[in-house]
Specification:
This protein is of the alpha/beta class. It has a single domain, classed as Rossmann fold (3-Layer(aba) Sandwich). The chain is built from eight helices and six strands, in the order βββαβαβαβααααα. It has helices at residues 49-52, 82-96, 109-120, 138-144, 147-159, 163-172, 179-188, 191-202, and strands spanning 8-13, 18-25, 31-35, 57-62, 102-107, 125-131. It has a six-stranded mixed β-sheet.
Amino acid sequence: MDTHQHQHQHHLPTSPPEIWHTTTGTPGSPTLLLLHGLFSSHLEFSALLPHLTPYYFILLVDLPGHSNSQSATLNTTTTYRFPEITSALATLIRTSSPSGTAHLAGLSYGGFLALSLARAHPELVASVFTSGSAPWAGIQRFVATRPRLLWCVIAPPILYVPDSLFAWLLKQMGLADLEAMREESKRNFSNELMRAGFEDCAGSGWRW
């Protein structure tokens, strides 16, 4: 098998959102599209890449409103919503996957997007793996659909917990240093993105 690995960066215009992406891995292997969680970025998968690149041609993205896909021209009433993001991801697969299809792996928010993409464009999806994307019900769905309450739950850990305390908690849990990803989460946080993301996850149709 050809184990040559490469990496290119692109900025793919779609309508309406723009999705920055980078490719890495083994050309000629199956395409794997990795979808990160809300307020995160493609850096979320850094520790996994050495285990995946020998076997896949990988598409890494920063979803609209996140890191390299932030833009002053984003329309927050449409750009952050699932139908528009799903359409942009479908275009990305058609134009950037050599086979025209992709395996999808998504975490949390990215997992809900993977499910929505598979439902809207099954012809583009070879398989779906998600984590943290089970249908929401009960208190979880109640909080997700109430922006003020949601802000009180989500914002403090991201914006106000001291970096030293965050690093200490990670060490106690035996986790790797996530300083770079934490900084991206702080930069990506916005009320508009939080509200749109949680509303779409709660109302995406994947319910008990």
